[in-house]
Amino acid sequence: RRASKHHARALASLSMSAFATLHHVPARAYKMSKRANDGSKKLRGALMTTRGAPGASFSEGEPPALISTTPEWDALKRHKEEIIDGTHLRELLNDEERNEALTAEYNGVYCDFARQRVVPETMEKLYDLANAAGLKDKINAMFEGEHINSTEDRAVLHVATRAPRDKVINVDGKNVVPQVWDVLDKIKDFTDKVRDGEWVGATGKPLTSVVAVGIGGSFLGPLFVHTSLRTCPEAAEGARGRQLRFLANVDPVDVARSLNGLDPETTLVVVVSKTFTTAETMLNARTVRTWITASLGKEAVKKHMVAVSTNLKLVSEFGIDPDNAFGFWDWVGGRYSVCSAVGMLPLSLQYGFDTMEKFLEGAWNIDEHFATAPFEKNLPVTLGMLSVWNVSFLGCSARAILPYTQALAKLAPHIQQVAMESNGKGVSIDGRPLPYDTGEIDFGEPGTNGQHSFYQLIHQGRTIPCDFIGIIKSQQSVYLKGEIVSNHDELMCNFFAQADALAVGKTDVELRSENVPTFLIPHKTFTGNRPSLSIMLPALNAYSTGQLLAIYEHRVAVQGFVWGLNSFDQWGVELGKVLASKVRVSMSQKRTTGELEGSSDGFNSSTTAMLNRYLKGKAQLKYAEAEDVFPCDLIDSDECRPPTSYV
């Protein structure tokens, strides 16, 4: 630790350019905030990959050690080879003392990880690794508003978006919680007016339908929460007579499906774009604006469209009243923004602010637990360290998220973005290529749908650790006379059985005892020893949905902190956008002139051939004769008539 502090002081004394040269990364990534009171502390918190592992020493000018160079990492590698490789979950699950030790519970959330390929000693070594990575200091730095997103020089404070009013969370010396509640109070006031019929549309009709236009984190998080609450009795009561839809994809099919059957007179549109420049979102927003103005006139935009954005100039130029813009901050990343106005505005319009406040309370409950609980009792830390174990030591490159409730159907797509955009990195926070694997390929489906889809592979193909999520009390109850169990009990029987099937498997000896033909034995053998963990919630409601969200968010952060990543930037999404701009310019030119792409247009021969096939297939579309031809609802013609079965 003393060596680590010495190294941090040495780094702080370097010029930015010298530091960038040392690490082969842009100086901009390491610009220290001039507003910070303690520059060396901020730099240390943002850049340190490993904090003072036992026996570690650094000479002046060396980068901090990667976690894979620490004794704790080596100890886990030896432990795997000497202990874990020689065990099978079939035997480990017979140890009741072990099984009991490998559970954790906090405020109704119960986690059983006895089906992970670990023993209590493994967990001790994983917590040692967390300490070697300086995990506690990094968690504290996040909650204290330090600029731990060093490549963008930003704090990471999505936790502040759900903090109670009386909490103090500082960014650059200023408490941001009052700002958060200014926006939340504005959301409550506005959504109450809309829901009570005080705020009406241009023709005086109540606005009972909401279309939220946004993409990425502006879509996946709110959709996950909406799907979770739709069949929750308490939340559904508040949504009676209302509907919420999401428009994300720039594909006109998504526009058609989102608007089909809606009446512009009773529809409110929420455009979510921090900068109000996101290409896909703004094209969709302009399309929906055309849908509204074609029926109600240009002045209707002020009554039928609101924004979640910080760019009030562009909001006003678009036609939305800046007073109807709801802000958020650069310390809230898109994939972590569902608790900000990004999610709270459309979801409060649907379910009411009081319901959504319970969602914030559930998330904050886990935030406090994450920030204060010792590692061995800390759910996000424990789950995060198990993921590090599975990826970096057991070589598992994917994770299946398997909620045994249809209400969590959109959890896996949301966590796909949260986890893969955060930890899908190949370099450390200080720009060095990593010699170990990070991140997971996340996917999933609700049970029992997934059982009839991809469970074949996870039982007898590749080893893919699984998260099973079960609900004790279903949102809906069905029990038919004469059936052995209720519908929900039937679902949960599979929840319990699948985890054991993966862990225990079925041997050739067992198959022979059942007189299975010899030629079928290889096909019916299950090797088992496939890790999973089980999470059980007492019920699925707004509060527990918030808890579940925060558990996964912080679990992802734990993995990134230990691997030495910046889990809060996403430079990997930029290159495709830049190249798409080039294609867009060329396509516009070719559409206007009626020409095809040539070798001088700058694309490789493969792309040129595909572009020309596309252009020739739609040669009748000429931008020189542009007119509004979408949505189809605006045009009464045989060429563009929408089906009536979208919804």
How would you portray this structure in words?
With 647 residues, the protein is of the alpha/beta class. The protein is 46% helix and 9% strand. It is built from 26 helices and 13 strands. The strands form 3 sheets. The protein has a 6-stranded mixed β-sheet with strand order 1-2-13-12-10-11, with helices on both faces. The chain starts with a helix and ends in a 30-residue tail after the last helix.
Poorly predicted spans: 1-49, 51-60, 633-647
Radius of gyration: 27 Å
> What would you call the structural class?
alpha/beta
Order the strands across the largest sheet as they lie in space.
1-2-13-12-10-11
Helix content: 40-55%
Q: Note the beta-strand portion.
A: 5-15%
Distance between the termini: 59 Å
**Number of helical stretches of at least 4 residues:** 26
Strand tally? 13
Mean pLDDT: 88
Shape: globular
The largest sheet is: 6 strands, mixed
Write the topology of this structure:
Layout: H1 2-13, H2 16-23, H3 39-47, H4 71-82, H5 89-92, H6 96-101, E1 103-106, E2 109-112, H7 120-132, H8 135-143, E3 170-171, E4 174-175, H9 177-196, E5 209-213, H10 217-229, H11 233-238, E6 243-247, H12 252-259, E7 267-272, H13 279-296, H14 301-304, E8 305-308, H15 312-318, E9 325-326, H16 341-351, H17 353-372, H18 379-393, E10 398-403, H19 411-423, E11 441-443, H20 455-460, E12 466-473, H21 487-504, H22 508-513, H23 521-524, E13 532-539, H24 542-563, H25 574-593, H26 605-617
Parallel strand pairs: 5-6, 5-7, 7-8, 8-9, 10-11, 10-12, 12-13
Antiparallel strand pairs: 1-2, 2-13, 3-4
